[in-house]
């Protein structure tokens, strides 16, 4: 099959007509599959719209052309659909998972997450993946018969497990959750709806996860170049990007700086997509899954970078960490952003009346700041855009960092 053409439907693809259903029964749509309906519900959610003013790396007012959480999410969805099409997977489920994967991020990117996790430490901490699940199962209030979006089991599974199993077969936390345990929000929901935390997710979810890696590595290079934090030639220190740059120079020796960077990003995205497809072909040929449950029960992910490409991708992440995420300009702004989040949490903790009426704790007469109150404050702050958090800080405090 020629690259660019859609592959035939794979036997291990998720099938909307065989979905395990929704927590609340609903009549099927007359015009959309169950997974297409999930995708549309994510797009129409308030949490999705708020992504347009949430930080990826640069705060929204630092420039109109830098990525936000929303534009990052759209790029992830584009890459994920391209991979799903080549692998014969369900594109609607893949897109739904790509569009939903960052709904739980608080304002100011990872800086906001660090601050909120610190504030909520005594109450279970903060995890953006668990917050995404909380949003789509509880915090969205758009439908008359249920809270949340009432997404299919397959979409909820992919939201929670797109980076792999959370526990072993005995229920012990593994991977990133081994030290602190599986977040309470996921544990509590799993008692109601078993997402089989011990297994891998569908290939659609694995596609969304690796598309996220491809997107943020490449567009962070693009944004770093635009911000002047490094130049195209600085990327020659890594063999993968050095080779791509050399080929661009050979084909376009007089290309200006801006187009040279854009061509590098475009070629890098294409290279990483093709590498993933090549590795997927190898792993699928060995595993020979016949059903989506074979994918779930396999001993390893069936979608990954080849070993040498994974090493190159790790070097790109290390470069970006040193030259971009730890750049004095970025660190200064993110330190100020953490201060805003911490200040807001402490203010709401000490003065619940500062919260909007709909966010006031139900047990407001109880003076103790307990886990239920802490989670309400955390949910409120996590839902803020950068702009709203800054304005709220200005409302409550005499001095607010300029984030510049």
Describe the structure.
The protein has 404 residues and is mainly alpha-helical. The chain is built from 16 helices and no strands. It has helices at 34-43, 46-50, 69-87, 91-100, 109-119, 128-139, 153-161, 184-192, 203-227, 239-251, 257-287, 292-296, 307-325, 328-350, 371-382, 386-396. It is globular. The chain starts with 33 loop residues before the first helix and ends in an 8-residue tail after the last helix.
What attributes does this structure have?
404 residues, mainly alpha, 55% helix
Strand content: under 5%
Q: Helical region count? A: 16
- Envelope shape: globular
Mean pLDDT: 94
Q: Can you count the beta strands? A: 0
Structural class designation: mainly alpha
Sum this structure up briefly.
This protein is an all-alpha fold and 404 residues long. Helices cover 55% and strands 0% of the residues. It has 16 helices and no strands.
Helix-strand layout with pairing:
Blueprint: H1 34-43, H2 46-50, H3 69-87, H4 91-100, H5 109-119, H6 128-139, H7 153-161, H8 184-192, H9 203-227, H10 239-251, H11 257-287, H12 292-296, H13 307-325, H14 328-350, H15 371-382, H16 386-396
Helix pairs in contact: 1-4, 3-4, 3-9, 3-11, 4-7, 4-9, 5-14, 9-11, 9-13, 10-11, 14-15, 14-16
